[in-house]
Amino acid sequence: MTPAAAQEKSERLLVVAATTSVHDSGLFDYLVPRFYAATGITIRVVSRASANALMTAERGTIDAAIVNDAEALDRFAAAGEGMRRHRVMFNRFVIVGPAADPAGVRGMKDAAGALREIARQRAVFLSRGDDSGTHVAEQHLWQAAGVNPKARSGGWYRETGLGMGLTVRMAGRLGAYALTDRATWLKAGDPGLSRVLVDGDPRLFNPYEVVLVNPALHPHVNVAAANTLVDWLLSAEGKSAIAEYRVNGEQMFTPSPGETN
What we know:
Layout: H1 3-11, E1 13-19, H2 20-24, H3 27-39, E2 42-48, H4 50-58, E3 64-67, H5 70-78, E4 82-97, H6 111-121, E5 125-127, H7 133-145, E6 157-159, H8 164-174, E7 177-181, H9 182-188, E8 195-198, E9 205-213, H10 223-234, H11 236-244, E10 246-247, E11 250-251, E12 254-255
Parallel strand pairs: 1-2, 1-3, 5-6, 5-7
Antiparallel strand pairs: 3-9, 4-7, 4-8, 4-9, 4-12, 10-11
């Protein structure tokens, strides 16, 4: 390959760090070929918990990130590491657990109250424990519940250190409760082992944002391809692709409202 051809190939490759729920839900497998058909740009996806995705961005080894941790993204942007930050879509978290529901939380609309009851019953709960957006959301719910799960005795609260899909599958095998985004549960969960038990609390809203790595700090990033990705995600075509992705006939993500590029 000639140097010119190698440079052209590099310019058509975009490296994106995405939180594991976006990857494990199957959304990226659906979007990537559609983005390539529209732009000719190849995306290489690096699946990471949100905090780790942003740490990767700080090292300049990716071009863009899609995460669901607004607080971590605030810090990233405040440090000047990112640019073109946009909300692109949302879904919702749910609490899943065994069909037998030993904590008796089925049908509750108060997620913090459900966690309080799980803790009171010492029912097994699996946390990702990985500083992901899901883990941060879970910590906020424990705070709202007035419970420090790590301080409760009994070994019922367990941290997996795994991504969303693997944590969902482990919870099913162990008959445990877990907080997950609904899309990943529908894609990776086993309805024979677990059920969605708690849904509908406004605090379970789960927004996803895209941000580009600042080329002023990392001049080697593929800023042209990254800008093309943001433009596409915010376009009518991109929003339509996000909305069209379904698992078992159910829409997994809703494009964020706002001006369409």
